[in-house]
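FAQ

Q: What does a record look like?
A: Structure on top, sequence underneath. For example:
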């Protein structure tokens, strides 16, 4: 990308899109096109094509998606499959129609099978059954990957796909029903501290293992790949290290200074037992994450307090 290239960030108000926007601005990319959800409903094909016709972006970061944690994915599967399929189909097809030079599609580590060998390599895609709690979301993301690859093959486009691990950071969703585990536990521990509660409820058994990447590392990797990688193969983005949900909850308790106990609610689902990405492909391209989990949680908690999110 040149500094004057026209860049469209789809989903710029979300966790990922807002981080990409911060990164692009910090790097002095000044010709950025944005539309809020209110201004442009990305599930409407005609509206999306009108927008691309009018703006003719050179580069597209496809970070618009309907996302949520284990509970929301399990309870609203229709919304997850419909919205994600519609948004990505419209943007990818319009990018082809209006000659976008390059597009980066944001997938997710949940595209890999539930019983995937660990760490999960890019070649494990479509090698087994998916985790049922987020199957609808995962199937939509897999369709997005295949769409990018198919367009590259038939139309000669340059559409790349990246698979981030579990993300966190500023502008995350902190709603206790629909959020992911890390923001939920920051909020629960903070509120328990303020109220003087003795216990915080953690869903599941606490034994599942997850990997967490700060969204500022993700945005750095996305801009890096936009500038340095062309290819059909998907690329994992993560840190390559994981911890149990119990260990995560203990780390958050210490950072937030909640001194009570953790209570595990085993009536809630655990989801995948383990999800750790093999990031050797990305590392071999010269990129590595730099924000440690402790530092990332501390900064995210500070951001929450500053922005009065609870
Ligand atoms: P997943 O990675 O797709 O399973 O999504 P989540 O981030 O929602 O959940 C990760 C793990 O954290 C699961 O085992 C959840 O049961 C567990 N977990 C523990 N407490 C919470 C909580 O308060 N909210 C969420 N979303 N998950 C929790």
């Amino acid at each position: 990308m040149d500094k004057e290239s026209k860049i469209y960030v789809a989903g710029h108000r979300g966790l990922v899109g807002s981080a990409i926007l911060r990164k692009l601005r910090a790097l002095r990319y000044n010709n950025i096109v944005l539309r809020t959800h209110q201004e442009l409903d990305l599930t409407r094909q005609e509206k999306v094509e009108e927008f691309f016709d009018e703006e003719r972006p050179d580069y597209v970061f496809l970070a618009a998606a309907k996302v949520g944690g284990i509970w929301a994915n399990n309870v609203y599967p229709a919304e997850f499959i419909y919205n994600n399929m519609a948004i990505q189909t419209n943007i990818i097809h319009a990018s082809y129609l209006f000659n976008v030079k390059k597009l980066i599609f944001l997938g997710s580590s949940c595209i890999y099978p539930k019983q995937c060998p660990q760490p999960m390599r890019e070649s494990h895609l479509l090698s087994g059954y998916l985790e049922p709690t987020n199957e609808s979301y995962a199937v939509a993301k897999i369709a997005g990957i295949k769409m990018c690859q198919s367009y590259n093959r038939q139309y000669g486009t340059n559409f790349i796909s990246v698979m981030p691990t579990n993300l966190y950071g500023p502008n995350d969703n902190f709603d206790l029903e629909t959020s992911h585990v890390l923001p939920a536990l920051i909020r629960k521990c903070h509120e328990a501290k303020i109220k003087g509660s003795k216990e915080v409820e953690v869903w599941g058994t606490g034994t599942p293992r997850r990997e967490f990447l700060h969204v500022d590392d993700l945005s750095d990797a996305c801009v890096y790949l936009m500038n340095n990688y062309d290819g059909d193969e998907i690329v994992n983005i993560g840190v390559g290290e994981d911890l149990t949900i119990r260990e995560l909850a203990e780390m958050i308790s210490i950072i937030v200074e909640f001194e009570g106990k953790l209570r595990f609610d085993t009536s809630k689902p655990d989801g995948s037992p383990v999800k750790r990405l093999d990031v050797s492909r990305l590392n071999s391209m010269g990129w590595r994450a730099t924000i440690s989990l402790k530092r990332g949680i501390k900064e995210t908690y500070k951001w929450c307090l500053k922005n009065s999110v609870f």
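Q: Is there anything notable about this one?
A: Residues 4 and 31 are 6 Å apart (CA to CA).
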